[in-house]
C-alpha cells in the first residue's frame, strides 16, 4: 500500500507539473498574439467603416446635387449652386470665438501646422462660418450621428481641403456629441456655451500634421491610418485616425475621418485576456481531474493480479454469456475491482439489450426513411421540371431584355442627333435674334434720317415758294425799269429833237441825249433779259416747288413705310426672342430626356443582368435538383444497406445470452 501511495503521488506530481508548464507556455504565446489580433481586428473594422461612411456621404450629397434638397429656411438648393456652396473656400471668423479662445491659452503657446508653419495654439479653437453650413449642419450631421452608435468610434467628421494651408482642415460639421448646443451640455470650464464653448468642436480648422495629411490625401486605394496622442477630458489618449478621400460631383472635396481610441483596444485585450485565463483555468481543472483518474486507473492496473474467477467469467463473457458474475467478498483493491467488474457486466448487459431494441427501431426507421426518400425523389423531379420551365421563362426574359436594350441604344443615338440639331437650331435662333436686333437698330436710324430728310425737304419747299414770290417782285421791278427805260428813251428822242432845233448850241446836248437814249435802250434790253430770266426762274421755281412737294410726299410715305417696317421689326424681334426661349426650353428638355435615357439604359442593363442571374440561378437550381435527385436515390440505396446492417446487427446481438429466460426464448 505504501508503494502504491508513493507511485500515485509521484505520477500525479509529474503530470501536474507538466500540465502547468504546458498551460503556462500556451497562455504566454496566446497573450502575445492577442494584442496583434485585437489591433488588427479594430484596424480592419475602422477601414471598412471609413470606406462605407465616405461612400454613403458621397452618394447622399451627389443625390442632393442631382435632385435638390430643402434647407431649414424652406429654400431648395441643388445642382451647381449646392456644388459651389460646398467648394467655396470663403470662411468668416466669428469674433466672439476669438475672444473666448484667447482667454484659454497664453500668447507663447504655439503649435505647428502640417506645412511646418508655427501658429498660436488658440487658433485651433477659432470658429468660422461657411456658405455650406445650412446644408452640412442639417444633412451631414444627421448622417455622421448614425456612426456614433459604434462603441469603438470616438468621433467621426469631414474635413475640407483648400489650396490655402491656413484653411485646410476646416470642419463644417461634427456629430452631435462633439458639437452640443444645449446650454448645460455645452458649458465649458470658462462658462462659454453653444458655438463659443470649447466642447463645440465643429466650425474649426484642424490643420495639424494628422488633420492636414487626412484632408489632402486623394488616394482611394486604401484608407490612411495615423497614430497620434491627443488630450481628451484632461487625459492623454493614443488615437488611431482612419481617413478616406471625399469626392463630390467627381472632384476632391477633402477627407472623412473616424477616430478609434487605443484605450478601446486595451479594454478588448484585457477582456479577452481574462477570458483566456478563465478558459485555461477550466482546462487545467478538468485536465487535473482527468489526470488524477488516469493515474488511479494506471496504478490500479499495475497492482491488480490475475484473478482466476475473473478470468473464467471473462471467458464466458467472450462467448456471449452475460448470465455470470464474480463472487466478491473482500474489501481490498481486488474486491473493489471485482465489484467494478460486476457493475461493468450489468452495464454491458443493459447496453446489449438497448442495442437489440435500437437495432429493431433502426430497421423500422430505415423502412420509413426509404419510403420518405422515394417521395422526396419524386418531389425533387417535379421541382426540377418546374425549375426547367422557370429557366425557359428566364431565357425568354433575357432575350426580351436584350431587345429592349437594343431599342434603348437606338433611341440614345437618335437623342444624340436630336440634341445636336436642337443645339444648332438654338444657335441659329440666337443669331437671328441678334440680326433682328441689329435690323431694328438700322430701321430706327433710317426713320430718324427720313425725319431729317423730311424736315430738309419741307424747308426747301418753303425756300422755293419764297423764291417764287421774290421772282414775282423782281418781275414787277423789271416792268418798272422797262417803263422807265422806255420813258427815258422817249425823253432822249425829244431831247435830241430839241437839240437839233437849237443848232450848234444844242449839239453837245444832242450827244448827251443820244448817249442817254442808248443807255435807256440798253436798260430796256437788260430789263427784258432780266424779265426772261425771272420768267425762267419762276417756271423752274414752279417745277422745283412741284418736285419738292412730290419729294415731301414721298418722304412722308417713306417715313410711314419705315415706321411700319420698324414696328414689323419689333414684332419680328419679339417673335425671334420667343423662338429662342422656346428652343432653349426644347434643348433643355431634350438634354433632360437624354440624361434620363441614360438612367433608363442603366435600369435596362440592370434588368438584363438580373435576368441573366435568374437564368443562371435557374440552371443552378435545376442542376442542384438533379444532384438532389441523385442524392435521394443514393439515400434510398443507403437505407437498403442500413436495413440489412440493422438486421445483421440484430442477428449478432441475439447471440448474446443476457439471462436464462432470454436464452429460453432465443432457443425456442
Automatic annotation (TrEMBL):
One cellular component GO annotation, for this chain's record?
membrane
Database matches in InterPro entries:
HAMP_dom, MCPsignal_dom
The entry's keywords: Coiled coil, Membrane, Transducer, Transmembrane, Transmembrane helix
Biological process GO annotation list?
signal transduction
Domain HAMP: residue ranges: 301-353
Pfam families, alphabetized: HAMP, MCPsignal
For this UniProt entry, which segments traverse the membrane?
Answer: 7-29, 276-304
Q: What is this protein called?
A: HAMP domain-containing protein
Species per Swiss-Prot/TrEMBL record:
Heliobacterium mobile (Heliobacillus mobilis)
